[in-house]
Structures are given as C-alpha cells and as structure tokens.
Amino acid sequence: MSGHSKWATIKHKKGAADAKRGKLFAKLIRQVEVAARTGGGDPEMNPSLRTMFQKARDASVPLDTIERAIKRGTGELDGVNYEAINYEGYAPNGVAVYVEALSDNRNRTGAEIRSVFSKLGGSLAEPGAVAWQFERKGVVIVDGAADEDELMLVALDAGAEDITREGDLWQVTCAATDTAAVRQAIEDAGLTVESSDLTMLPTTTVALDSADAAKSVLRLIDALDDQDDVQDVFANFDIPDEILAALGD
User: Fold this and answer.
1) What is the pLDDT of residues 169-210, one digit of tens each?
2) How many C-beta atoms lie closer than 10 Å to residue 126's C-beta?
3) H or E segment to which residue 66 belongs
4) What is the count of structural domains for the chain?
5) Residue 41: left (phi > 0), alpha (psi -120 to 50), or beta?
6) pLDDT at residue 8 above 90?
7) Which residues contact 56 (CB under 8 A, 6 or more apart)?
8) Domain encompassing residue 171
C-alpha cells in the first residue's frame, strides 16, 4: 500500500463520525449518479456503478438516497449534469498528484484547484504530465483477522493480482474491472470486507523522510480533497509508518 493509501485509511477511520460526513455523502452520491449516467442504471450490467453503489453503502449512505441518485443519472429524475475532469500537478518535494473531479462548472473548478496548488507550494501541470506514473486498479480492504492462506486462495482464484499486509488490514489489489467479482468472492468465503474502491496506484514513489516534508505534502492533499467538486486525490508519496502514525494522531 502506498503512503497515500495509508493516509487515506487513517482519515477514513478517524472521519467515520466527524463533521465532514455530509460532504462525503454528497461526493459519493455524485459518483453514483455519474456512473449511472455513463453506463446505465443496472449495477449488474454496469461494473462502475456496482463499485460506486457498494462504496456508498460501505459509508452508510441510505439506500433510498442511492436509488434516487441512480434515477437522476438515468434521467428518471431531474438532476445536474456533472462533467468528469482530471487535474495533474506536483506537491512540494516533487510528489506527483492526480485529482479526479466531477463538476457542473469547469471554469470554477479549475480556478479552485489551481488556487489550492498555488497557495500550498504546489503547481498545476499539463494533462499527461503525471498520469503515466499511476495505474488504475481495484482495491479491496479486508479485515486483518482473515487467514492469509484462505484469503490468498480465494482472492487469487477470483482474479486478484496482489495481497499485502498493512497494519491490521489486508489490501487486495486487482484489475479495475475485477473489483466487484473479487469482493464478492471474498465475502462469499465468509471473510469480512471493510471497503472496496477504484484507485490510482503509483508505479514509483517519492520518499518523505521528515515530518516537515510530510506535513507540507499532506496539507496540499487534504486541501484538494476538501474541495466540493473533488472526488479523489492520488499521490505517489511514501511516508514512514512512524511519521504517518504521528501525523494521523
């Protein structure tokens, strides 16, 4: 798991009941709506919608709220037409940053993203500048109590590519299109899945070996993530566990 994935996991645990829950719900609902608009409203026929549906349910978004978002996406209910936009740039210390946004106003969103990069020591780059440093993958997070041999047998048989231990959790990595199938196989085996999602995993990482360097990067990452139109932020930093744990506290 990259340093950014670890940071995201720490924030997920700490933020489960915090004041930003409403903002998280809004982002998840928007993701469901766009997935339904681009691939249809049947989760069984639309892998992206199936993944976003499950992601929203993992975060305890009410089922009726998700169903309304799907209907807005398919046109059964009126809704805003969101556009998917990606931004690429650099955080301090040369860390590559890839931002995924859903916006109803490209100019507003672009100005906001540029401002965050500029104010916090980063720089926005041209499309393609950092995307090549990431790979689109599916990630399934499994309770660490799961038996390694059993998990490996089940996950690999379902199409998983890699299984790694990260603290008290297992991370199962697979092709993006196999995410739902891998999760289903793990759950069918009676193992507890904490979450599943589509992500951008870095192919190379930048080591941040001091607390000051880590803080400067995380400050930018968190500010981007806090923008209403931003759905996900990925970065290729790698921070030692002891520094990451201290910052998480």
Assistant:
1) 899 999 999 999 999 999 999 999 998 989 999 999 999 999
2) 8
3) helix 63-74
4) 3
5) alpha
6) no
7) 28, 29, 31, 32, 66
8) 133-202
